[in-house]
Amino acid sequence: MGGFFGVASRNRCHTDLFYGTDYNSHLGTKRGGLTTLNQKGEFVRSIHNLESTYFRTKFEDELPKFEGNSGIGIISDTDAQPIVISSHFGRFAIASVAKICNIDELEKELLAQNMHFTELSSGKTNQTELISLLIIQGKNFVDGIENLFNKIKGSCSILILCEDGSIIAARDKLGRTPIIIGKKDGAFAASSESTSFPNLDYEIERYVGPGEIVRFTSDKIEQLRKPNEEMQICSFLWVYYGFPTSFYEGKNVEEVRFRSGYIMGKKDNSVADCACGIPDSGVGMATGYAEGKGIPYHRAIAKYTPTWPRSFTPSNQEMRSLVAKMKLIPNRALLQNKRVLFCDDSIVRGTQLRDNVKVLYEYGAKEIHMRIACPPLIYACQFVGFTASKSPMELITRRIIEELEGDPNKNLEKYAKTDSPEYTKMVEIIRERFGLNSLKFNTLETLIEAIGLPKCKVCTHCFDGSSHF
User: Fold this and answer.
1) Does 318 have pLDDT greater than 90?
2) Alpha-carbon span 122 to 369, nearest angstrom
3) ∠ Cα 383 174 264 (to 5°)
4) What is the C-alpha to C-alpha distance for residues 310 and 326, in angstroms, rounded to an integer?
5) What confidence score (pLDDT) does residue 312 get?
6) What's the pLDDT at 276?
7) Which helix (H) or strand (E) holds 424?
8) CB atoms within 10 A of CB 109
9) Helix or strand or coil: residue 452?
10) Burial class (CB in 10 A: 0-12, 13-18, 19+), 41
11) pTM for this one?
């Protein structure tokens, strides 16, 4: 994933840019970058590796060098960016939140047109560089971004800092990733997360629509391309990687998580002494579940927040498992001889669930029940990449399907259908494998009801295989 922030202000923008970008830290962990345009018309840029530290620690000391009233910043799980391009449009800086599935095909096409790519230490093409090359094939920015939208398979949202100090924000053509516009006196900002706005005194001005292109300065915003009717915003924004205080399409993350738990708690006939959320993204669901079920909410497990980042951070599975274990600390006083119901956002590989359940029993829990905010993940994401999974076979569901069918791709639609014999068998195997007293997943219908958008506007590919390129 990744998240970006851009600001155009009447005053020097470095403080808003720094903190606004930092409030996207939960969306990416590999690279961070800031670019401003100074009074001489020069782009001032810095990019740092974040894999062993936090964004603030890398940029705080050099913040004074970022002169100017306009800037863009990004925290990314992919490329070193923003990058600066000289083109027939003039010079510009660009940052992207993207997953391009046909990058090899596009790279060959551009090389055949005598284009070239910078060699990276990773040996891979910088997605943002490829994006910029597709854009500059157009007659102007709007035409170029249209070309980008038409060429790529996957998703792509971008911020462009132009040499006149204006900022162009273009949202993915199907709106898979969000862009929110904020406004305060003397400034406009664009962010992947509306969480960036409150402490910087911005109010949400509007949500950029699917495929919409806008340009803003410190005192005005104009639409360069109207939004598309069709939208496929990623449902996992609300399930997992969105920050609790953020809004997408007017729907607050924590409120959606609470509502999904509340609906589930109302319907659930299981018996438990208390409900507990697996930090962080299971907490909102658990408070809702407790209220819907009419049982107390307890913090029987807590996250040690001062040092441990989210568990998807390391790319190495062994290290990721260690992080998942070390960051969560059980509370024996609240577990001893209790029937505890835990809520969590999802089950991907099952590694974290297995380790958590083992520890909870060791700390005295009499029964452990698990409730999951979304349906089982059956299909790997082709559009956003919300997990570090490189293959569908990293999903516990697909490994179980292979065991049952002899083919991990067989009868997937049956396993994706809630309460089908195949679905029921798969869930029972997961429950049994991890020693749970009960395991239930929210239905797709409940998740959509909790989000509050029409099903046709929300991408649910990872649950039901529905696809829109």
Assistant:
1) no
2) 43
3) 70
4) 11
5) 46
6) 97
7) helix 421-433
8) 13
9) coil
10) exposed
11) 0.93
Q: What are phi and psi of 91, to 5 degrees?
A: -90, 145
Is residue 29 pLDDT above 90, yes or no? no
Task: Give, for 449, the enclosing helix (H) or strand (E).
Answer: helix 444-451
Check: CB of residue 361 under 8 Å from CB of residue 439.
Answer: no
Question: Can you tell me the distance from the alpha carbon of 142 to that of 418, in angstroms, rounded to the nearest whole number?
Answer: 43
Distance of CA 65 to the CA centre of its chain: 30
Single-letter amino acid code for the residue at 115: M
In the chain, the percentage of residues whose pLDDT exceeds 70 is: 93
Amino acid at 74: I
CB 97 within 8 A of CB 33: no
Nearest CA-CA partner of 182 in 167, 196, 163: 196
364 dihedral zone (left: phi>0; alpha: psi -120 to 50; beta): left
What are 96-116's pLDDT values in tens digits? 999 999 999 999 999 999 888
Which of 236-240, 314-318, 406-410 is the least confident region?
314-318
Q: What percent of the chain has pLDDT over 90?
A: 79
Q: Is the CB of residue 141 less than 8 Å from the CB of residue 166?
A: no
Report helix angle 317-326 to 351-362, nearest 10.
30
DSSP-derived secondary structure letter, 385: -
- For 324, the token pair is 């998942």
Q: Hey, is 198 helix, strand or coil? A: helix
Residues 6+ apart with CB under 8 A from 428: none
- Of 125 and 346, more confident: 346
DSSP 58: H
Angle at 443 between CA 153 and CA 208, to 5 degrees: 40
- Residue 19 has a pLDDT of 97
CA atoms within 13 A of residue 217's CA, in its CB half-sphere: 7
CB burial of 217-256 (b: ≥16 within 10 Å; e: otherwise) equals bbeebeeebebbeebbbbbbbbbbbbbbebbbbebbbbbb
Q: Estimate to the nearest angstrom the gap between the alpha carbon of 404 and the chain centroid.
A: 32
Backbone angles phi, psi at 260, to 5 degrees: -65, -40
Compare 326 and 61 and report the one with higher pLDDT: 61
